Amino acid sequence: MSFQNWDEIRTAYQVARIGTVSGAAEVLGVHHATVIRHIDALEARLGAKLFQRHARGYTATEAGQELLKVAQATEDQFGQLAARINGAGSEMAGELVITSIPGLSKVVTPVIAGLMAEHPELIVRYVTDLRVFRLEYGEAHVAIRAGSAPTEPDNVVQRLHEHQVALYATPDYLARHGTPKTDADLSTHLFIGHENPTSRAPFYRWLSGVVARNQVVYRCNDSEAVEDAVQAGLGLGFLPVASGRAHRGFVEVLGPREDWVSPLWLVTHVDLHRTTKVQAFLTAIKAAAKHWPAICTQPEHAAAG
Predict the structure, then answer these.
(1) Which H/E stretch holds residue 281?
(2) How many domains, the chain?
(3) Does any domain span residue 82?
(4) Is the domain of 134 the same as that of 281?
(5) CA–CA distances in Å: residue 122 to residues 49, 254, 289
(6) Which residues pair with 236 in a beta bridge?
(7) How far apart are CA 272 and CA 284, in angstroms?
(8) What is the pLDDT of residue 14?
(9) Considering the domain boundaries, does residue 197 fall inside one?
(10) In degrees rounded to 5, what are phi and psi of residue 209?
C-alpha cells in the first residue's frame, strides 16, 4: 500500500511522542476528535493496531514503533529543512530557537530581551529541557548545555560559563529542623532530589554519597519543581545560584562548591553557526556571561541564616 496522507502519520507520531490524544491535539492545533479519527483511519488502512490504549494514554505497539521510526525521520528532515531556510538569510528577522537546561532563564532571558529590543522583527523560542536537542535536524539554532563537552559531529562547541548551584531551604523548614552547619549535620535533614536516583549531575552524585537514600523524600526532574518543593518546605534542595539568591524567601544553607560545578557550553550546528541571528545571540550571551560570576557569588542576595 502507499501512504498518501501525511497528516495521519504525523498525528500518529505526535501521539506516540507525547502519549496522549489531548497533548497531540494541542501540538498539532486540531480538535482531539481529529486525532482519534486520524489514528483510526491509519490503523484501518494498515490493518494493524499502532497503539495500546490505557488509562494514562497511548503506547505504541511493535507495529507502531516501526511506522514511527519513518515518521520521526521524515519530521526531523522537514524540521532541518525549515531551520536551514529560516537561518539562511542575513537579516535579523524571523524565528530564532534557543534551548538550555532548566534554571538559566534568569540570566538568559535578559540577553534575549536586549536582542529583541534591538531587532523588533526577531521572534524567539526559548525552550528549557534536560533532553539533548538534535541541532543536526534543525530542532534549535543554539543550545546551552551542561556537563561534559558535547561531541556530536558537525557541531561548533564553545565554553560559556560554569553552572553553579547551592543548597536552599525556607526559614520555616529550618525553624523545624535546625540549620546544618557542616556536612555531618545533614544526617537529620530531608532532601529534594532528582527523579533519577542515578543522575549524573555532580551535586546529586555528591548528595547520594553524603545522605541516606530514605532522606531524599521528594524527587522531581527540573529546577522549577525543586524550587516549588523548597518553597513548600519539603526539605533542602539544590537550585542554580542565580535563582536561589534572587528568591528572598530562601536561605542559602550551603553555598556553591567546586565539586558541584558543571561547565556550560554553547552549541551550534556548523550549517547555521555563521548566520546573522545566531552570531548576534552568541556575541550577546558571551558578553553577558562575563558578568555572571557576580550574580553567582554575591552573598547579599541570600537570606540571612
Answers:
(1) helix 276-289
(2) 3
(3) no
(4) yes
(5) 44, 41, 22
(6) 191
(7) 17
(8) 86
(9) yes
(10) -90, -10
Nearest residue to 197 via CA among 208, 186, 210 = 208
Residue range(s) defining the domain that contains residue 92 = 88-161+262-301
Instruction: Name the CA radius of gyration of the chain, rounded.
Output: 23
User: Model confidence over 165-200: pLDDT tens digits?
Assistant: 899 999 999 999 999 999 999 999 999 999 988 887
For the stretch 226-285, pLDDT in tens is 999 999 999 999 998 878 888 889 999 999 998 898 889 999 998 889 889 999 999 999
| Residue 234, domain member (yes or no) | yes
Task: State phi, psi for 233 to the nearest 5 degrees.
Answer: 80, 25
* Position 107 in a domain: yes
- Alpha carbon distance 122, 254 (integer Å): 41
Cell of 218: 521528594
Nearest-angstrom CA–CA distance, 211 and 190: 9
* Residue indicated by cell numbers 534542595: 237
Q: Which pTM value belongs to this model?
A: 0.54
| CA–CA distance, 149 with 265 (Å, rounded to integer) | 7
Cβ distance 205 to 179 under 8 Å?
A: no
Q: Show the cell assigned to 88.
A: 539562511
- Whole-number pLDDT of residue 13: 83
Check pLDDT > 60 for residue 106.
yes
Can you tell me the distance from the alpha carbon of 9 to that of 134, in angstroms, rounded to the nearest whole number? 21
Residue 162 has a CB neighbour count (10 Å cut-off) of 16
Question: What's the CA gap between 93 and 83, in Å, rounded?
Answer: 13
Distance from chain centroid for Cα 187: 31
3-state secondary structure of 29: coil
